[in-house]
Write a structure and sequence with these properties.
Elements: E1 11-16, H1 30-48, E2 60-71, E3 80-90, E4 94-103, E5 108-121, E6 126-127, H2 132-137
Antiparallel strand pairs: 1-3, 2-5, 3-4, 4-5, 5-6
Length: 143
């Protein structure tokens, strides 16, 4: 894992494509792209808000409301995939995180897209505005 780069690049993590991630055509199954994005998303949120635990319902949380993935090229067994995350839009109660996935080494774009998260109060069972302290840390970076 890594954090935001000192040269201004977005937060990113690297994961290796496992044998179990493959489909019958011997490239990474489309379901795994979402898992890679989700892993990077959780790591990113923990990096900007270390006190936040995504599995504790008594705290402020997020509901994953939407995901859009554009598959650009296949990923293959044992390739390392770097998933970069950056906030692209912060609203009153929601956040859009953009992502790009590249094959490490050749820097081939494998997929890109975004996910929309909605602030959520699990105890009340309803959406909730993002805390100002979190919004400050989520200011969208230039694309």
């Amino acid at each position: 894992m890594s954090g935001p780069a000192s040269d201004g690049r977005p937060f990113s993590i690297v994961e290796r494509v496992r044998f179990g991630d493959l489909d019958a055509m011997q490239h990474m199954n489309n379901v795994e792209f979402l898992r890679f994005f989700e892993t990077a998303r959780i790591a990113y949120l923990q990096s900007i808000s270390p006190e936040h635990t995504p599995t504790r319902r008594e705290e402020f949380g997020f509901i994953f409301a939407e995901c859009h993935i554009v598959y650009r090229s296949p990923a293959f067994f044992n390739e390392e995939i770097r998933t970069a995350i950056r906030p692209s839009e912060v609203r009153r109660s929601s956040l859009r995180l953009a992502f790009e996935m590249h094959a490490v080494g050749e820097e081939r774009l494998v997929a890109d897209g975004y996910g929309v998260l909605v602030g959520y109060d699990y105890a009340a069972g309803q959406s909730r505005p993002l805390p100002e302290s979190l919004k400050d840390r989520l200011a969208p970076e230039p694309a």
